[in-house]
Amino acid sequence: MKFLFTDAAFSYEALRAVAYTPYDGADLGEVVATAATIEDGDLESWYSGWYGLAERTREIADRAREAGHAESARCAYLRASNYFRTAEFFLVAGQPDEPRQLRTYRRGVDCFRQALEQSTISWQPVRIPYEGTTLDGHYLRAGAGPRRTLLAHGGFDSTGEEMYFAAGAAALRRGWNCLLFEGPGQGAALRERGLVLRPDWEAVVTPVLDFAPTLPGVDPDRIALLGMSLGGLLAPRAAAFEDRLAGCIAFDGMHSAAEVVLDALTGVAGGADPLETLESALADLDAQPTSLRWLLSQAKWTLGASTAGEILERLRESDLSGVAQKITCPTLVCDAEADHFTAATAQPQKLHAELTCPKELMTFTAAEGAGEHCHMGAMTLFHQRAFDWLDETVPAQT
What we know:
By secondary structure, the chain is an alpha/beta fold. Helix content is about 45%, strand content about 15%.
C-alpha cells in the first residue's frame, strides 16, 4: 500500500503513524501536511518534519492542560507521543547524534504519561522486577473486580507507549485489563538500561506473570499474551514454557528471525552465502534502500551485535523450530497478506503448521486494507477480529 511517499520505508512508517488515529494517536490532516514537507527518502528531512509536528502538538497539549481542558490535553499529548516516536524511528539508520535520539524518545514517553494523567481511565506506571533491575510497563485497569487481563509487548522496535495504540486502548474498550510492558531490546530497557534482545523470551514473560497478579483486578487464571511484529515470535516462544497463559496471540506470526532478515537481503546485496551477503550490505550501508539500511542498523542496536557474524548468530537463536509444539494454550496466529517482512517466507503459516495446541490462522487481506505488516491502516478491523477471538477463548466469568 503506497501512502504519501514513494520510498517504501517512509510509506509504511507514515501509514503506521496515521494508523493509530482511532485511539487519538494521530490526526490525518496533520500527517498529510507534515508528509508534504518531507523530502522522500531523506532521513534528516523525516526527522525535522515529524519532530516539528510533535513539538507543535505538545505545545497545544501544554496550553490545554494549563487552561484546565483535560480531554483536549489528553488527545494532544497522545498525538505528540506518537509523533515523537515516528521522528525517532530512522535516527538509528542515520548514525545519529545519541543525545538527539534519547531526547526525542524521552519527550515521547513524557507526553504519553502526561496524556494518561489527564485521562479518566485507571492507569499506573509499573516497574516489573527482572534479574536485578526492572522492566517498565503501564497497567490499564478496565473496571472494578477481577477481570481478564491482556499482557502486551512489542518486537524489534516497539515501545510500551506504542503498544497502548496497538493493543491497550482496544482492550480497555472491551473490558479487558491490559499490562503493557517492554522487554530487553525494547523501549526503555534498550535505551535507558542497555538491555539487548534475548531469544529465550520466557525469561522475560515469567517475571511479568509473577508480577501481574499483584496488581489490583487481575484474575491470574484469565491472563492472555499478545506479541506484536517480532513479538509474534517472542510471545509464542514464551508460551511454550509457561502454562499460566489462557491464550496467546502472534501479531503477526513469525517462525524464524533469520529467515526474515535474510529474505530482506535477497536481490539487494547479492551473494549466495548468507554471511557474505550480510557483510556486503553492512560494508556499504548508506547505499542500501532505506528499509534495509534501517533494518540492519536496528539489528546491530537491538541485538547488541557489531559484526555480520554476530547479527546472524543472534538472529538464528530466535527460531521456533522444535519449540512451537510445546505450546498448550489456545493460540491465534495472525497473517498479513502483503506483509513486507513475513509474506515471502510464509512465516505465519510455518508457525501455525507446527502448533499442536488449539489454534487458528487468521489472514488479513490487501482488499480489506489490512494486508500490511501488523495490519497498519486497519487497526479497528484487527482489534475486532482479534478481541472477538479472545472473548471466545478466555471466558468473561470463571
